[in-house]
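Q: How would the C-alpha cells look for this protein?
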Amino acid sequence: MEKVMEDKQTVCPHCGQSLNKWSTPSFNFSDGLGWCTPFLYVCFNDECSFFKNSWKRMSEVYGQEMGYRYMLHPDSGESSSIPTGNKSAMKGDIIDAISETQEKEELEQRKKAYQMLTDYFISEDVDSILTMLLAEDGFGSVRLKAAEHIGEIGDLHAIEALANHKFTNEVIQKRVNESIKQIHKKNFTMECPFCAEIIKIRAKICKHCGKELTE
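A: Here is the predicted structure in C-alpha cell form.
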C-alpha cells in the first residue's frame, strides 16, 4: 500500500517558509503521469535559495530562461521541483496557506481511506473497492490504488460498472482500462466489437448479437 505522508514538515527546507496549497493544473508536467491529487504543497517565497538558484542552473545547464519551485506531494511526502516561467506564474492557483489543524485532519482522512482500501483488498470485497474507485470526490491516489486492486481481484461483473463510468481523471481512467484488460485476460474473455457484450475469447459467433467474429 502506498505510503501516506506522516509527520512531514509543511515548510520549505531551503528557506523555512510555510508552504502553500497549490491547485494542480488540468495538464501534466514532466512524465505526464498526472498528480492524482487536487493540490500540491509549493514554496512561493521568491527569495528562497532553491527558487533563486534554479534560474542560474536552468540557464547554464539547459539554456532556458526559467526556474523551478520546491514542491511536496501531500500523500507520499516526496519532494521535487515544479517549473515556472516567471515569479508571478502559478500564484493565481494558490488555494491558501496551510492550517496545521486542517492538515492533520486531511492526513488522517487519507490514512483512514487507505486502511479501508487495504481491508477491502484483504477480504476481496470487490464491491466496496468499486465504490471507492467510482467516487469522483475521493482521494485521487486512493482511487488509483483501488483501480489497481480491481485488476488484481476483480471479476467480470466489475467490468460493466467500470466501462459505464466516465472518469474525470485521465490517469485513473488509463489504469482502469488496464485493469479491465487484466480481468478479461484472467477469464479468457473479451468485449464483442459489435455489441460490447462480454464473450469468450475463443468465440466465433457472438452469443448476444449473433455477429460472426473474425480473428
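Residues 100-122 form the longest helix (23 residues).

The mean pLDDT is 86.

Upvote if useful.
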